[in-house]
DNA sequence: ACTCTTACTATACAAAAGTATAGCAATACT
DNA sequence: AGTATTGCTATACTTTTGTATAGTAAGAGT
């Protein structure tokens, strides 16, 4: 799916590190992955709620990304036999931990902006 | 360039966090960014060296990505007036710190793989 | 004048990622 | 039978990202 080349193809960085980095990138890259994860984290578990919560996402993209996130073990999909049918997407335990990566990204991003004197954007 | 939507467009997450995350994603996403950064980190400073070091990258992509990384304040470009001309790309101090993000990604990726019992890929 | 080296740029094309718009299937309620 | 709600799928299209291949510019050496 993602055939990013990385450190391994260059020198000694262990292969499983590279795989790990690629896994992580797969989970967070793309236009809608983070918005979706954030929405679920903030308590929107149902398709309609997530859709309403994210401005301008199309149903195609939403279901595509939800499928991928489920496949990657980041969220779960549960069907409840109420009526109308209720389907809930929730973060897995492992999925929740991805916040630590986001924290690292915020930290670097903020200090990088400071040290590089960016004003606008 | 990257109009990733994120947490802010969903709820309360502070805007500068979102900008920070987007900055970070811009620096590491795409097929060649990490290989290039890794190559420079490993001591390949010159265009030819980086190119020789990364299998199958085209000159177009290499110069495109180097420009972007420079623009983003992650690497510097220095021209030395030797002959033939020598140009060196090096990580900025801030650029080097992005390793902390990669560490977080490796950590999550590895433990996620464990907890999800992935075997192959 | 020709060749070598380094560090690229130009043009055309292919593949991947995302958008727009419409419609479907299941169940219940009226 | 008709309408509403939820959770999607289908098809066609545009945009972004990456590839392939060739060529350029500047200086030194022969």
Tags for this model:
121 residues, two-stranded antiparallel sheet, DNA-binding, mainly alpha, 53% helix, Arc Repressor Mutant, subunit A, homodimer, globular
CATH level 1 name of chain A: Mainly Alpha
How many helices of chain A?
A: 6
User: Percent of residues of chain A in beta strands?
Assistant: 5-15%
Query: Spans of chain A of 5+ residues with little confidence (pLDDT < 50)?
Result: none
CATH architecture of chain A: Orthogonal Bundle
CATH superfamily of chain A: Winged helix-like DNA-binding domain superfamily/Winged helix DNA-binding domain
Order of helices and strands of chain A: HHHHEEHH
For the record, the count of structural domains of chain A works out to 1
Alpha carbon gap, first and last residue of chain A:
31 Å
Oligomer: homodimer
Instruction: Summarize model confidence as the mean pLDDT of chain A.
Output: 90
* Strand order within the widest beta sheet of chain A: 1-2
The rounded Rg of chain A comes to 17 Å
| Count of distinct strands of chain A | 2
Overall body shape of chain A: globular
Description:
Chains A, B: Keywords: DNA-binding, Transcription, Transcription regulation. Chains A, B: This is Putative HTH-type transcriptional regulator YtcD. Chains A, B: It comes from Arenibacter algicola. The structure is a homodimer of 121-residue chains. Chain A has 121 residues and is mainly α. Chain A has a single domain, classed as Arc Repressor Mutant, subunit A, CATH 1.10.10.10. Chain A has six helices and two strands; from the N terminus they run ααααββαα. A two-stranded antiparallel sheet of chain A has the order 1-2. Chain A is globular and about 55 Å long. The model of chain A has no long low-confidence stretch (mean pLDDT 90). Chains A and B meet through α1, α2 and α6 of A and α1, α2 and α6 of B.
